[in-house]
Amino acid sequence: SQTIHQWPATLVQPVGSPLSLECTVEGTSNPNLYWYRQAAGRGLQLLFYSVGIGQISSEVPQNLSASRPQDRQFILSSKKLLLSDSGFYLCAWSRQGPYEQYFGPGTRLTVT
Amino acid sequence: QQQVKQSPQSLIVQKGGISIINCAYENTAFDYFPWYQQFPGKGPALLIAIRPDVSEKKEGRFTISFNKSAKQFSLHIMDSQPGDSATYFCAAPRGSNTGKLIFGQGTTLQVKP
Predict the structure, then answer these.
(1) C or N terminus of chain B, fewer CB within 10 Å?
(2) In B, which residues are within 8 Å of A48 by CB distance?
(3) Each residue of A1-22: pLDDT tens digit?
(4) Confidence (pLDDT) at B1
């Protein structure tokens, strides 16, 4: 069966500090991978989308970036965090094409 | 920009009652509509999905109804239980065979004992 991991689970970072969130998927190969952000009490905003190693599409202009160094690894980064970067970050995977997405447990980021 | 409009924003139902959440979508490349359930502090979990070669899909107490001509689909939770209290999101495909989804804004359901 497939499993998706995210870490860390929670993170408190000062404004201007760097960020690295990691997501890994087990039990599947060549998945589509997604990074979402969810503000408190709001819906899901797609940040990045990847169909393969090194192939990243950015959905929203911002100071965040994403990388996919391995088939089942997806990393969300920032060089300098802003207060507005606070939120609940979710990684998801799906098979190629219009199929169900499966979400990880999320990372709660608080920028102070 | 493509949207999925979800209503109501919040819903309070008595235990044993029926919870109904509605979504309306714009044109999609594929007819595929999943629903997700999210508990506080957790990632959304796939609850039920429909690929409308059928107009209705039922799994246990959860039913999706789909009206293609009206571009609407809904989630019905029969015999609602306090454990169903969560936020529910509908979604629709975005783009052409990309796997991307566009989500509704969510409905917070509270089931009172």
Answers:
(1) N
(2) none
(3) 889 999 999 999 999 999 999 9
(4) 67
Confidence of residue A96 (pLDDT cuts 50, 70, 90): confident
B97 touches chain A (CB under 8 A): yes
> Measured between CB atoms, which of A42, A46, A104 is closest to B100?
A46
Interface membership of B112 toward A (CB under 8 Å) = no
Tokens at residue A75, please? 């990393």
- Which amino acid would we find at residue A44? L
Establish whether the linkage from the previous residue to B8 is cis, with ω within 30° of 0.
yes
Mean pLDDT of B78-90: 97
Query: What radius of gyration, in Å, describes the C-alpha atoms of chain A?
Result: 13
CA-nearest of B68, B60, B6, B14 to B35 is B6
